[in-house]
């Protein structure tokens, strides 16, 4: 019986250690964008939430800040900012890709509202 209890404790500790290791690369970042409307919010969230290494992304339209939870072992903050810029939006100090920005609906471009 003592052996069984000891074995269960070892298994539980091993499982807990592995779970902590997997979350070891989890980070959260807040990125300022120039999003204009609900369509911008949806476009940014959809792209980020389907990007490898990103756990979750949500944008606050009032502040134009997107909060991103990500695994830094799979994607860097600079890469996340690049993804945002490639769909036509600024990301902190990263300027939007001009052709992507011009391809956005007029209302989603700077000065469009």
From TrEMBL:
Residues 26-92 form the HMA domain. Residues 1-19 form the signal peptide. Pfam families: HMA. The keyword Signal applies. The keyword Zinc does not apply. One of its GO terms (molecular function) is metal ion binding. Keywords: Signal. This is Copper chaperone CopZ. It comes from Lishizhenia tianjinensis.
